[in-house]
Amino acid sequence: MEDEGVPGKSGKGLMFVCALLCVLAVWLAAQWQSGALAFQANLAALAPGIFGSMLLVALFVERMIEVFVSLWAPPQVAAHQQTIAWWQAQRGRQKRRIADLLAELNSTPGLSDERKTVIAGLLDAARQQIEQADDKVDAEQKALLPYTIQTTKVTTWVGLMLGMITSAAGFRFLSQIVVLAPISAAGLPLSVQEQYSAFIAVDVVLTGAVLAGGSKLVHQIFGVYESYTTAWSKAAQARGVASSS
């Protein structure tokens, strides 16, 4: 039995493939003598629109993944999910009932002892039902766990497939942020054409992987960009104030 946290055979194989691809990339760069690519001059103005379009496409890919997974998932998944939703709704109803009973108990003047006893009994019953609902939800979630693990693998592969298909069709991220001469331009040396082809291939893979990550991943990337631009703007303002003084 393998220790937790130690990569298994599949993990070691993946690491080997990644290392091989890195070596291949370095060798190809040396053979082609690829040059550096420049960012678009107005990238700051283009970035919100680029990320907005990425977010929109990622949302479409997410919905497509849900459709594929709903067709693939076994009926037990839907049964467990519906049971979880019912017990969660039951828990919510009992919490609202407790809130109403406590409001009556604390805000009703001259409440009889008999009614207080009834309210105490109703509160105990509601709390017991909440505990029962929690236990049922936990049991259903544990029963759903094997399907969730399997579904996660399926959604990852389906998302990567749909993302790469979308990217191969023409919607790409890196091509929008760098200055890239078209491959059909006359007089381009062979090394530049090879670099262009390699760039497109990498762009398809990376854009496909980002789209497979869903809209949350796009939000995170855009958040990092906003943090960077905000920090850069504050630093520029600070330098301007320091120079003026």
Instruction: Determine the strand fraction and express it as a percent band.
Output: under 5%
User: Largest beta sheet, briefly?
Assistant: none
Helix content: over 70%
Q: What is the radius of gyration computed over CA atoms, rounded to a whole number of angstroms?
A: 28 Å
pLDDT averaged over residues: 78
Global outline = elongated
Q: How many E-type strands?
A: 0
What is the compact description of this entry?
The protein is mostly helical. The chain has helices at 9-32, 43-72, 75-107, 113-168, 174-177, 190-212, 215-244. It is elongated and about 90 Å long.
Account of the 3D structure:
By secondary structure, the protein is an all-alpha fold. Helix content is 82%, strand content 0%. The chain contains seven helices and no strands. It is elongated and about 90 Å long.
Task: Sum up the structure in keywords.
245 residues; mainly alpha; elongated
Describe the secondary structure blueprint for this structure.
Blueprint: H1 9-32, H2 43-72, H3 75-107, H4 113-168, H5 174-177, H6 190-212, H7 215-244
Helix pairs in contact: 2-4, 2-7, 3-4, 4-6
